Amino acid sequence: MSEATGTRRTAPVGDATGADRVRQVVVAVGAALAVAGAAVGSGAAGGQRIAEAADGALSADATVVAPGTTAFTVWSVIYAGLVLFAVVQALPGRAADPRLRAVGWWVLASMLLNALWIGVVQAGWLWASVAVIACLVVVLCVVLLRLVRLPASGVLDVVATEVTTGLYLGWVCVATLANVAAALAASEVGDLGLGPTGWGVALAAVAALVVIGVSFRAAVRPALAIAVGLAAGWGLAWIAVARTQGPLVDRTVAVAAGVAAVVAVVAPVVAALRARSR
């Protein structure tokens, strides 16, 4: 381990094995199918949009922590990153890359879980979708931890792994809060003591705290930490925008989400600078 960063150094790249070749092919094919299925299932390539599924439980005005519709354009960037990852890990010279060995199957699992989440939402099973997205968060956290332990071999590797994973995880963290809120609202469980505004503020604060925690854990990989903050900040900012217009206006939640968005963007930068100075 490196004493300065507490991370492992990349092991020398050895000869590729048959298992490496299998992983490359399966991840590449699985990624193509998962991204295509997600695009179709989400309405991006035709069909019912997620906002219209489950009786509109995940629409922009369903709960006080639902992001505005424009927020979901981040998926175009995430999907592009996932395709890039699939291509990079499939290159002949990358079969034995220790970093890609460590995260390849996990990234594929995240893509399949995302496609499963879309299918579950389209079926109207909101609580099942909460379970799926929770599993997705766990899988992406595993990817993050493995990337932290193994340094990248170049800029392309940083973009394909760290930037992609960071954006993916940051967005999914915000989406998880919105998903839970949607399931609770659809189940008509009531205000649970705090009321919509109280819960909106609390969930915005939780999102900011999660990003702070992730940022300091991933601080030795600035691209990874900052990407998490940017995606989370994007989602929180669009929650703020959504609460200032439309049928579900809530100025208090808008301010809380706006502050949380700023914290989400700034915290990774602070964490990265702190790690660099140590």
TrEMBL record:
Transcription regulation listed as a keyword: no
UniProt entry tagged with the keyword Transmembrane: yes
Listed Gene3D superfamilies: TspO/MBR protein
Domain of life where this protein originates: Bacteria
Keywords per UniProt: Membrane, Transmembrane, Transmembrane helix
Transmembrane segments: 25-45, 65-88, 100-119, 125-145, 166-186, 198-216, 223-241, 253-273
Protein name: Tryptophan-rich sensory protein
Originating species: Isoptericola peretonis
